[in-house]
Amino acid sequence: MRNPWGWVALTAFSLLFFTFIYAPLFVIIGYSFNSNPVNMMIWEGFTFDWYTGLFGLSDRATGVGNRAAYIESTDQMLAALRTSLTVALFTTTISTVIGTATAIALARYRFRGRGAYNGFLMMPMMMPDIVLGIGLLIFFVTLGMQLSLLTIIIGHCTFLTSYVFIIVQARMAGLDPALEEASADLGASEWTTLRKVLLPQLAPGIMGGALLAFVISMDDLVITYFISGVGDTTLPVFIFGMIRRGVKPEINAIATLIILASVIIAALGLWLRSRKID
Amino acid sequence: MAPLLEIRAARRDFATPEGGKICALDGVDLDVGANEFVTLLGPSGCGKTTLLRAISGFEMLDSGTIQLGGADLTALPPFRRPVNTVFQSYALFGHITVARNVGYALEVAGVAKAQRDVEVAETLEKVGLAGMGTRRPSQLSGGQRQRVALARAIIAKPKLLLLDEPLSALDRNLRQQMQIELKNLQHRLGIAFIFVTHDQEEALTMSDRIVVMRAGAIEQIGTPRDIYRHPRNRFVAEFIGETNLFAVTVDRLEGDTALARTAEGVEVLLPADGRKAGERLTAILRPADFTIAAQGIPGTVTRAVYLGSDLHLSVAPEAGGPDISVAIRDGLGVGEGTRLHLAHDPARVHVLEDA
Ligand SMILES: Nc1ncnc2c1ncn2[C@@H]1O[C@H](COP(=O)(O)OP(=O)(O)OP(=O)(O)O)[C@@H](O)[C@H]1O
Ligand SMILES: [Mg+2]
Q: Where is each ABC transporter domain found (chain B) (predicted)?
């Protein structure tokens, strides 16, 4: 760098920027190990109690000293986690398949209304969550469908398909059409070309889209809040419910675990992307 | 013997965005023999790529037929046509190794792995890439990728190989080396090549026959010598190599020779056979057809450039008119401003009868 002050300013800016983004996360992680049950902002000592408590392994309670209440909420939490994972796995699979197929079809085949189709696919991403949530709720009620795991999955697929589509489409646009021609030229049918050339070439995009869909599905609160049945609480909805009854230290522990899971998924995504396919 | 490839009355129109039509192939007839090296040559947009893609099946003809070895290909999809292509961008599959790229045609055809490995090794050897099979295409140089593309296209032993400007991405030295290798390979494999190039020198040195195209139609088909010495019209003459065109009127006959003049008065000698005084025609002389002599067309050198062993001159005729391009072997003492006479052998003149 020619100008040392410029370098200092740039470093300072980056530090501030990352502090701003990551400070809240570190605060939560710190709090989750604070043994002060009443005021988490005052450090009292290090503890794993909130973690073990989450899984019903600790007698320590917040507020009320009632172990039974804990075990119940632990079961609820694990059930919510299971619901979230189920929903995320199904929606990721369905929206990845539909989104990828759509991206390939739109890039390779000309048909009437192609432009409009493209626009309609973007719409669910642009739409505010709350509008989408209400819309879906009214739609399901109109059809007379019981709110259930199924309605959550359908609801998530409506907008996650768009995300997968956008990402795969970007990869598709960067692909040399001569690759598919070369494959056909060497005797491969369209199906073989899809299997041996197109899908492997699109793989990083498809993986990226699937990971994004998974994370968004796990994370969605607003839309899910409208379309989940009584028995099918997802993790975000469960946490939201807990917070309304006051922020307890266990929430910090859950949050920390979720941060950890996200970091692992993100690292997995980056690793997959770094395995270059060009 | 019937030719390997027979194209009859091939037509292909493209719609332009403005709503008009471009005729990319305007009734093309072409025969290619087994083991023949045919080059398509012509200005940009004349339909060379379209013709190649029509043969490989990526463009369907609006009308006309394509037959290969007696079988009708016209309506077959690309993957059912026994021709292979070397793409200009190489189009190598980046997600698999060089060996799997080369063996792709066999893999798709269901050849067993052991057999495939043997043939892949042989083919890599043929193109000078022995031992490179385990690399990824991204780990190769441009010239090596070119060879992989070639190996991939010949492994299934097609009767006809299509190459669309395969050498255009290579630098000059590598390009010349590949020209020789391609020609040798074609000879050894006994495959017919249809080769597209912009480079007329490349076309002249490599081809058995050259197809000169303009605006979707074939202007002339012939051996390099034919095309160079006996262009059928002005377009071909000007497109291939440096050319001097003289629009002349026959002045008088002197024995075997006819003496003709341009409007400015530059004198050109032609063979007399059957010419009559007053006849108008176009005389074509190549730069190498001239010699410096005591008599001939008087002029002044306006530019002198050494190209390899030849001295290339631009000579302004004293009588006026466009400069004449001249290439001579031994140009000692000739430079810009030198006054000289250009002589030529009447038998070297190629005559285009004016319409
Ligand atoms: N897919 C297409 N849609 C519309 N017009 C096309 C299409 N492909 C080619 N053309 C037109 O057809 C004509 C012939 O094109 P082609 O690519 O065959 O030319 P070419 O001889 O290969 O030129 P170049 O030497 O520049 O590669 C051109 O006018 C081109 O604009
Ligand atoms: Mg072309």
A: 7-240
